[in-house]
Amino acid sequence: MTKSRFVLDKFAKLIEQGLTNYKDVSDELISILKSKRDEIVFKMKLASKEEVDILNKRISNLEKKLTTQKKTKKTSKAKK
What we know:
- By secondary structure, the protein is mainly α.
- The protein has 2 domains: 1-46; 47-80.
- The protein has helices at 2-44, 49-79.
- The relative contact order is 0.04.
């Protein structure tokens, strides 16, 4: 009985260490991939979401100004 318990304890420890090592390896792999992603994004000089939202608002404001200017130019030409 003691020999089987000894074998089971050793087997349980081996499995526990394997799971712990797997978890550590997977966490390390994820952190490496995240850092590589950040490096690529930095090299590409991509804008953040906030910057994109601000730029979209500016573009929509400029489009509104252009449409109002086109309307006023058409009416002024008709008056002449």
